[in-house]
Structures are given as C-alpha cells and as structure tokens.
Design goal:
8 helices; 20% helix; 16-stranded antiparallel sheet; 4 domains; 616 residues; 3-stranded mixed sheet; alpha+beta; Ubiquitin-like (UB roll)
C-alpha cells in the first residue's frame, strides 16, 4: 500500500471513529451518573432496617430529608418529581447514604428529562444539615431542547377515510419546532391502535413508527404510518334463550350478520337486553377462535328472570300523607314479550288502581306502545275527583335525545267541590308531548336540565261533553354554584274551557305543597268559589329558586324561595310567596328532602315537608 493511500485510509478511519464517538456521546450523556443496582438496594435495606427497629421500639415516625429541585420549568419539574426514588434518606442519614441517593436520583432523572426532549441535561447536587436534618438540593440545567423538524403521520388501508381516524389525525402529536415530548407520541400511537381495535380493523399494523434524533443538531424526525388492513364484520349471531319468540327477541338485537364490527355495539347490546326487563344474566361473547374470512361470530346466551315480580311499599309524604301500595310486574305475558304492570295504592289524598300493558315495537329501546286503564280517587281539602281513564300512548325517542309522545284517553269523571253539587263529565282527549333530560347524573345531578311540554284537547264533536284545550310547560335546572348547587324550577299551565265547573279535577290547576309553593298546604292555592272553597284555576304559574350547601359527603343544607298560584285571569294572578330552609340526604334510594316553609302572609304558621326523588 502506498503512503498516500495509507494516509487516506487512516483519515477515513478517524472520521468514522469520530462520528461513532459523537453518536455515542448522546448515549454517554444518557447514562452518566448511573449507579449500580446494588448501591440502590443497600440504601433501601438501610432505610427499611431503621423503620423496622423504630416500629419494634414503638418510636415516633422517622423524619425524612427534604429535597428542593431548581433550575427547570414547572412541567419538567413535575416530571422529575415523578421519577424520584420512593426511598428518601432519613434526617440522620450518613453521607454515604446521601451519596447513594443522589446517584440513584441522577440515573432516574435522565429518563425524566429525555422524555420531555432534553437530552443534555446536567445535574448538580448538594446538601447540608439544617436543624438536625438533611436539606438536599438538586439543581438541573436542562440544556438545549430537541425539537421536531418533520413528521409523517398518516393512516392508509381500507379504513383511511373512517371518521374516527380523520378526527384523530386532525390533532397531530406535534407542530413543527415543538419540543420533543415522547408522551405525545405514545398517546397518539395508542389512540390509533385503540381505534383500530374498536372499529374491527384487527389486522392493523404500523408500517412506520420511529423517532429519529440527530443529537448534533438537536432535531427530531417523527414517522407514524398505520395500515388499517380490512375491516371485519359480524358473522353468525347465535342467540340462546327460551323466553321470547325469535321474532320478538330480534327486536332487541342490534348486532346483525354482515354489519361492520364495532366493540361499542357489544356494550350497547348488553345494555339494551338488560333494560328489556326479561333477563337475569346476559352473556355476549365474541368467538375469536372461529373468525374466518374477516367475519366475527357472536354468541348471546340469555337466562330469564322470574316471570312475576312483587313489590309492597309503606311510606309517608307531606303531599300524599300516609300511603301503602302493592305492585305486580308480569315481565312477559307470552312469547311476544308484552309486559303487564298492575299497581294499587291507598293514600290520604291519592288512591287508585292502574293497569299498564307494554307492547314492544320495532327498536323497543326507542319506540314503545302502552295501553292503560286507571281508576283514581284524587282529593284535597276542598275538591274530590273520581275518574276512570282508558287510553294508549306511543312513545318515540329521537336520536337527539328528545322523547315524543302521542296519546288518546277516554276520561269518565265525577268531581265535587265542598259545598257544591257533584259534576260529571266525559272527555275524549287527544294529546302530544315533548320531553328531554340532560344531566351528569339522573339521581344526584350537579349539572343538568329537564324540559317537558304537553298539549291535550277534546272536542264536543268527538265523544266529549265540551271543548277543552290545555297546554303545560315545565323546566328544571341544576347547576354548580360556589361549593354547592343552585336549583331552579318553572311551571306554566293554561286551559281554554267553556264550563270550568264541569272540568275534571285532574285537569284543574292547583298550587301549594312540597313540590310547588312551600309554606302553603298541598293544593291550597287557587280560585275560591262563593263558599270560600278552593276550586282550582284555569292558569298556573309556579316558580322556585333553591341553593344547597354541602355539610359533608351525604348531607347538605338548603334555603329556598317559591312563588306561584292557580288563577283564572292573568290580570289577577295574586302570586303567593314562601321562604324556608331544609336539609338534604343522599340516601341509597335517592335524595331525601326535609323542608320548613314559611308563607309570607303568616310567618307564624310554617309547614313541614318530606319528599323523596330526583331533583330533575
């Protein structure tokens, strides 16, 4: 070999060696300050030995050294603190233990700084004994951050146009010149993987998943390319049950052969079958071992509940008085899945017997038909009504959460106001309704609302004694206010009727009571007749504002102000106002409310109220 060729060869070798050294310098910086596992183990054993002796001698808890981290941003400081060793030296630790601790700290903290894009971080440690206890110091010099200069983030394959993937891709893990944060990359990659499994792309794989770092220029290049592969579909859906006919049970099945796989369907299917009321246990299983030709077979095994359920209740409410009730729920009357509910109740103000037949329709979760027969005795101090009602209602839940209803009811009624003759009426009422509830919890909401609208009408040309039109609207709102809750309620009703005296009690408006204007008796507010008896009104306004302040986890105190009345003419509303306070208990069966209300007309005659039920 000629001398000039030897010199050229030697230069090339030195250049390669230099590049290797530069590349390895990053690795050296990453591992500088690492300690042997045995050193860390020695510190743990020493600390644990001291703790054991302390417990054996019934001594007070060991005092630990304090450590102060400086020189870094708040985010980096938090990440460093998360990587701190579990074992911290005690106040009287010797210098050797403190040294071992710092060696372990530096090893762990290099991982913490690299995770946030700081590969050249340096650590300066020290400490001194203050008031007989070590006060440790760790100064961190983060150095120059590594920044993202390019990124290739995309989804290819059959699922590239899926909405879920497009939504994820809109929020890429980095922007150009962002400091490299490894957690962003990991979380983004996990989102893509989870979406693939959720939507049936079981063969999805990352064709590229790299972060290339150039330590010399402090630059990072990110590549993450997911190939979804084909989307799997449901195969055979085998249903094992003996309660309903195949036609009836299929109304509750949303998993259909050939439909694209979606794991959320399995959860929703479980919930639909549970809410149907027929089944005690529901087992839905994806048969992975039988997957073939991109088809996923599913097995559904259903065990029925007992056919009949019985309930007996005894209770008391300030509006209803003492009450006792019994219920029979026949969960299915036959293979078509119709459900029969029979309920009877005796109470001081409201007694009756009701029968309901629920007929499941297509998509019964959102669509149902209910037939009802009710006999009711409804009374207050001045008015008593006895009625028989036969009707039906169709209920449909829209995709936006609104519930629509259409009803027809034949009402036969006898109503008597104290001191007046009994009146009789027959009405065929046609009704429509609209309702929606939105809340973070239906039982104990902290943020939510409910709106309910109803319109009913009867015509003397269609099997009715007279023309009647009635509209009602109610709204409730619950929201956080300071450390407590603010509750608002508004009810409005109006009736157009020719002969009010023949209007059934159930269609008259009254105010007052625990769910109306507190401070006044149940249904004690309304228009008075010539005998000074409350006969009810054609119109209703009922308003309430309440604040609840927590006392502890299960109890809260409440203050409230209510206003309202039932009347015939808006020129003479004469709204009554009541104020008061009470307590709330988060019981296992729902909120329990105890209130003391004071009418503004006579503060010396407060009313006590007890009620149970959701605030919405």
């Amino acid at each position: 070999m000629k001398f000039s060729q030897f010199i050229l060869f030697l230069s090339l070798m030195m250049s390669m060696s230099l590049n290797t050294v530069r590349s390895e310098e990053v690795e050296t910086a990453r591992t500088k300050g690492s300690t042997k596992a045995s050193d860390s183990k020695d510190l743990v054993e020493k600390t644990e030995t001291k703790k054991t002796k302390q417990l054996e001698n019934n001594q007070p808890p060991l005092k630990l050294a304090s450590i102060d981290v400086t020189g870094v941003t708040e985010d980096l400081k938090k990440n460093i603190e998360l990587h701190m060793p579990v074992i911290i030296p005690v106040c009287d630790a010797d210098r050797g233990d403190v040294k071992l601790f710092f060696n372990t700290v530096k090893k762990n903290l290099r991982k913490a700084t690299r995770a946030l894009g700081y590969y050249d971080a340096e650590f300066t440690s020290g400490g001194s004994i203050v008031n007989n206890c070590w006060k440790l110091r760790l100064k961190v010099t983060s150095g120059r951050p590594t920044k993202v200069v390019s990124q290739e983030i995309k989804v290819i394959g059959d699922g590239q146009n899926e909405k879920i993937f497009q939504t994820i891709l809109k929020k890429s893990p980095y922007k150009i010149e962002d400091v490299l944060n490894h957690q962003n990359y990991s979380e983004f990659k996990t989102k893509l993987s989870e979406a693939s499994q959720t939507f049936g792309y079981f063969d999805a794989e990352f064709e590229k998943h790299t972060i290339r770092i150039d330590p010399a220029s402090y630059q990072a290049r990110v590549a993450l390319v997911l190939n979804t592969g084909p989307r799997y579909r449901y195969g055979d859906v085998a249903i094992e049950q003996t309660t309903l006919s195949n036609k009836a049970v299929n109304k509750y099945i949303i998993i259909k052969t050939g439909k694209p796989f979606k794991s959320e369907d399995l959860i929703r299917q479980q919930q639909i079958l549970q809410r149907s009321g027929y089944y005690k246990t529901i087992k839905i299983e994806v048969l992975h071992e039988q997957i073939a030709n991109n088809r996923v077979p599913v097995s559904i095994v259903l065990t029925p509940k007992k056919r009949n359920a019985y309930k007996f209740k005894v209770g008391f409410g300030s509006d209803t008085g003492a009450r006792v009730s019994a219920e029979l729920d026949r969960r299915w009357t036959g293979s078509k899945g119709r459900q029969l509910q029979i309920k009877t109740q005796y109470a001081q103000t409201l007694s009756g017997v009701s029968l309901k037949l629920l007929n499941p329709r297509e998509k019964p979760e959102d669509n149902s038909l209910v037939y009802n027969i009710d006999w009711t005795k409804d009374s207050n101090d001045d008015v008593i009504g006895r009625s028989i009602n036969i009707g039906s209602k169709t209920i449909r839940k829209r995709s936006n959460g609104w519930i629509q209803s259409v009803s027809i009811n034949a009402l036969k009624d006898r109503t008597r106001v104290e001191g007046e003759d009994e009146t009789r009426s027959t009405l065929l009422l046609f009704g429509v309704g609209l309702e929606k509830v939105s809340a973070d919890s239906l039982i104990f909401p902290t943020d939510g609302w409910r709106i309910k609208l109803t319109l009913s009408a009867a015509s003397e040309f269609v099997l009715s004694d007279q023309n009647v039109i009635q509209f009602t609207a109610s709204a409730k709102r619950v929201m956080k206010f300071g450390s407590g809750r603010l509750l608002g309620r508004a009810n409005y009703g109006t009736t157009i009727v020719h002969d009010f005296e023949r209007l059934p009690k159930s269609l008259r408006f009254f105010a007052g009571g625990g769910n109306s204007v507190r401070g006044y008796g149940f249904e004690s507010l309304g228009e008075l007749n010539s005998n000074n008896r409350n006969r009810g009104g054609k119109q209703l306004i009922d308003l309430s504002l309440e604040y609840q302040h927590p006392i502890n986890e299960n109890w809260s105190a409440a203050v409230f102000a209510d206003a309202g009345n039932a009347f015939d003419d808006f020129k003479n509303t004469d709204l009554k106002v009541g104020y008061g306070f009470g307590v709330r208990w988060r019981s296992p069966v729902g909120p329990v409310r105890i209130d003391l209300g004071f009418p503004t007309e006579d503060y010396s005659s407060p009313k006590l109220y007890l009620s149970v039920g959701s605030d919405l």
